[in-house]
């Protein structure tokens, strides 16, 4: 699959390249050669790591999108449990959380097809994203997508200890499609999905997921679920 750089990283990569050249070029001109070699190697590796972080692969879900729930992020499943969601859904549901390390792609995809009916950003702390409290205490952005069958799927982008900016493209009223980016989180972070009880889950804690590709669940609209108050 073809990989390109996400537009969220363009200015950062340009500024970092200028910094690297500003440090290394003078060393090659006036400094000792051994130091120039070492510094160029160190900064070169660092720059490639940042480029790797901002990669934005083009992906397509190859399964049947009807009632499918697809992972919104690359990473590892760190939570899978029944909880009470109190911001919008106001009912018990299945929380499925994927933690993204700094080596993962940090673009986020919509988990289901539907329409965005709620979007809100919350300021907060910057605890490690794998901690359970990060879902409610860290800086975060909440988006709710209503499927064509009337089920509400809540997606929450959560900042981590290193993440200092959550970008959310989703706004109320826009169409959500599995193949589309709904946002981006800069550096380590996590994404929580809140799914209706009765959703068939295909992953377990510790499994790795690929955003926009890995089907993590199947909705069952025939099962009655609670609606938000």
Major beta sheet summary: 8 strands, antiparallel
Q: Would you count the extended β strands for me?
A: 16
How much of the sequence is in beta strands? Answer: 35-45%
Secondary-structure element pattern, one letter each:
EHHEEEEEEHEEEEEEEEE
Residue-averaged pLDDT, rounded? Answer: 84
Helix content: 10-25%
Uncertain stretches: 225-229
The order of strands across the largest sheet is 11-7-8-9-13-5-4-15
Give the CA-CA distance, first to last residue.
43 Å
Which shape, going by the Cα principal axes? elongated
The total of helices stands at 3
Classify the secondary structure makeup into a structural class: alpha+beta
Q: How large, in whole angstroms, is the Cα Rg?
A: 20 Å
What does this structure look like?
Helix content is 20%, strand content 36%. The protein contains 3 helices and 16 strands. A hairpin with a 5-residue loop joins strand 4 and strand 5. The longest helix has 21 residues, at 10-30. An 8-stranded antiparallel beta sheet has the order 11-7-8-9-13-5-4-15.
Give structural attributes.
229 residues; alpha+beta; eight-stranded antiparallel beta sheet; three-stranded antiparallel beta sheet; 16 strands; disordered C terminus
Brief digest:
The protein has helices at residues 10-30, 33-53, 134-137; strands at 3-5, 55-57, 68-70, 75-85, 91-100, 107-109, 114-122, 140-146, 152-159, 166-168, 175-176, 181-185, 189-196, 200-201, 208-209, 215-218.
List the helices and strands and how they pair.
Elements: E1 3-5, H1 10-30, H2 33-53, E2 55-57, E3 68-70, E4 75-85, E5 91-100, E6 107-109, E7 114-122, H3 134-137, E8 140-146, E9 152-159, E10 166-168, E11 175-176, E12 181-185, E13 189-196, E14 200-201, E15 208-209, E16 215-218
Antiparallel strand pairs: 1-2, 3-16, 4-5, 4-15, 5-13, 6-12, 7-8, 7-11, 8-9, 9-13, 10-12, 14-16
Helix pairs in contact: 1-2
């Amino acid at each position: 699959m073809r990989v390109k750089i996400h537009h969220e990283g363009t200015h950062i990569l340009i500024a970092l390249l200028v910094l690297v050249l500003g440090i290394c070029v003078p060393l090659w001109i006036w400094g000792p050669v051994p130091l120039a070699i070492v510094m160029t190697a160190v900064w070169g590796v660092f720059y490639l790591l940042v480029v790797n972080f901002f990669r934005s692969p083009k992906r397509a879900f190859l399964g049947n999108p009807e009632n499918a729930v697809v992972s919104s992020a690359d990473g590892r499943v760190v939570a899978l449990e029944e909880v009470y969601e109190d911001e919008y859904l106001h009912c018990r549901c299945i929380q499925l959380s994927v933690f993204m390390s700094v080596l993962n792609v940090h673009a986020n995809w919509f988990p289901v097809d539907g329409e965005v009916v709620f979007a809100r950003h919350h300021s907060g702390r910057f605890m490690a994203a794998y901690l359970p409290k990060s879902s409610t205490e860290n800086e975060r952005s909440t988006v709710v997508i209503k499927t064509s069958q009337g089920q509400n799927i809540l997606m929450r982008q959560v900042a981590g200890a290193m993440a200092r900016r959550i970008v959310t493209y989703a706004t109320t009223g826009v169409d959500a499609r599995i193949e589309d980016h709904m946002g981006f989180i800069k550096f380590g972070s996590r994404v929580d999905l809140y799914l209706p009880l009765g959703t068939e889950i295909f992953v377990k804690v510790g499994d790795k997921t690929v955003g926009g590709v890995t089907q993590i669940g199947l909705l069952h609209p025939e099962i009655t679920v609670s609606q938000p108050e």
